[in-house]
Design a protein that fits this description.
This protein is α+β, with helices and mostly antiparallel strands. 23% of the residues lie in helices and 35% in strands. The longest helix has 16 residues.
Length: 178
């Protein structure tokens, strides 16, 4: 398990899946804001591709996020779009509603940075998030990410186009103990 100050990132367990599905992915609005495509229902018991990852090329590394105090499941974290040639990847996370607003997001981003830069020897990490996602923007910026641009009206979410903010962090800019 990778450890931050408040959270741990560990492998996804089978018993995590019903909780993550019910609290993150069955929520139409939350899922629509977090995913790159439209929400769709997944048949109970089916292998939901967002939760079951079988990627032999290791282009995506999914984690379950747990509280260090007690080990309670509080969300998901992902390093995705891993490009071993350019040594870059994207960061994504989703916290259960009960875990939001407690500083966990900032710690999750910090642990993903450690994993990307130290464990995977990447050079660049990137985040794309909706412009109104203040929690993710704050978590990213507290970890040293820099706003690199706005993708105007680039995300179709629940009947409207929304702007996305692109943030980046290079290994030489990263401050592990920030």
């Amino acid at each position: 398990m990778l450890r931050g100050s408040k959270v741990g990132l560990r492998a996804r367990h089978e018993d995590d899946i019903p909780i993550l599905r019910a609290e993150l992915y069955d929520d139409v609005v939350n899922s629509s804001r977090a995913e790159g495509g439209p929400w769709r229902p997944i048949t109970p018991g089916a292998k939901d591709p967002r939760l079951f990852v079988d990627d032999p090329k290791e282009g995506i590394v999914p984690f379950s996020v747990v509280e260090l105090d007690g080990g309670t499941l509080i969300g998901t974290a992902t390093l995705w779009g891993i490009d071993t040639h350019s040594r870059s990847a994207h960061i994504g996370l989703g916290l259960l509603p009960s875990a939001r607003g407690k500083g966990y997001g900032t710690d999750v981003v910090a642990v993903l940075c450690h994993y990307g830069f130290v464990v995977r020897s990447l050079h660049r990490l990137q985040i794309e998030t909706l412009a109104d996602n203040v929690a993710m923007l704050t978590s990213a910026e507290r970890n040293g990410f820099v706003r690199e641009g706005v993708l105007r009206s680039s995300a179709w979410v629940m009947g409207e186009f929304l702007d996305q903010v692109l943030l980046g962090l290079l290994v030489e800019e990263w401050k592990p103990d920030a």
